[in-house]
From TrEMBL:
Residues 519-532 have a biased composition (Acidic residues). It comes from Natrialba taiwanensis DSM 12281. Pfam families: Spermine_synth (PF01564). GO terms for molecular function: thermospermine synthase activity. This is Spermine synthase.
Amino acid sequence: MAVPAFASVRPSKPDLAVFISGVTSMGLEMLAMRTLAPEFGNHIYTVGGILTVLLAALSLGYWQGGKRAAVATNRQMSWLMLATAAYVGVVVFASDILLTYTSALALPARYASLPAVIVLFGPPTYLLGFISPYAAELSKKEGTGEASGHVYALGTIGSIVGSGATTFVFIPALSIDGIGLLFGLMLVGTALILVVPELPRRPTAASVLVALALVGAAAGGPALFDIDHRGEVVYETQTPYQQLEVIDNGGERTMYLDGAQHSALDLDQPDRHVFTYTKYFHLPMLMSDDIENVDRVLFIGGGGYTGPQDFADQYNATVDVVEIDPSVTDAAEEYFGLEDPEQSADINVHATDGRQFLQRTDETYDVIVLDAYKKEQVPFHLTTVEFMELVSDRLADDGRFHANVISAPNGPAAEFYRAQYRTVQEAFPDAYSFRTSDSNNVQNIEIVATNDDTAFDESELEARNDARAETMGVDLSSAIDNRLDEPNTDDAPVLRDDRGEVDSLLDPMLGQRYVIEESADGEGGTEADTEPAEPTAAIAADSNPGARATLIG
């Protein structure tokens, strides 16, 4: 069999253009998800909006490019690459301010991200759509079918490379602006290759100018718009899972994940529960028959490790923590006082998914705390009856389960709470719920379930609190006062693995006001609303990773 000559398999300039356009278009799609998450959350409506807009822009580019392909040249493709790179520079430089303006548009919450996607990522994706029909027209392949198949294959391979490299290499290693700069320079380099060896003056000069503009945008954009009302940014990074920031404001240090508050530390009083709901984590201990018999505790969700450290300090128990993002654990160690997990005798850290951990472990726990829910995106596999039954199996016969649920206590925005409560009831003999705010806004609702029959009444809980407050290190009288009556769950679904109902249940909460109560004293006994001073300001206020809560007056 004859071996093809090297020249016959060497990529042509149009081939390179198609491949790079595939890399960049898919890379921009992945980057859009990370760019929009801090402002709009990463729930299904944000992801679906990105896919819808970018596919529409790409299709429009294909159509327009096909109509003009008869006069296509390598130089025209070079200009398209440069125009795309220039717009990427705009995104790098002004994405924050563009997000602010587009998020202020009066749209239903589920559609709120669409203007931002259109403005930021629609134009560059549209321009890249021209490349494939132009390349097919310039292809040396015989026949329309062979030329189009060749172009489709190269573009798809480029998309695979762009998706994989952005997900597994660029996002863990670079900032969003750094990734945008990389894509922009890649486009500029391709534009130059398309016009070599002639290097005409105008395309060459334009390439140099666009490259300089990209570098300037990456260097100057963040500094120009870095007016952060939240305080001093102590640390920030992109992890494979989210944007992570540590911010100091006055005497409080807060961890933000995708722009949402997750954990907080009082720098002057490290033992204070800044967020009231973390004090409620002790409710399972209040309901345990004997605190001294609680030997093993599991937290699913670590964040700033406020709860796990509190339990390790207060109780003679070994605390396992499942935190899927190792960068979050590293930040907790560096900025929130977490002892090196490899050296700690009390806290063991497992970097994996919570459900996978429970499926694989042989351990039995006395208390399991689930703190991995989000306001606008909930990992549904941690909500279902199958998961709850797994939790029950991993608990001791008299074990206690605690879930930090983000929902409203009643009204339309309470659909998820009622469904979650009913689902918990399917797996556990008894369940109790406690609101953390006197308001009816979306808030942290704590559900505690017992693996045995209990039927606690208010007087029994009060008596236990009086006897155990010193041992637990918290006074839970306010939590007992905030106990909710059993919700009406007649029309609430039981959440199951084979039914994707969680997103529809969260839908009524989109855009709703979300309140995290803050404590004022050492035990978190006085509650304070986190409502912003300016009623028209939108701020992130979530206690869980990857979520966004908007407080709008």
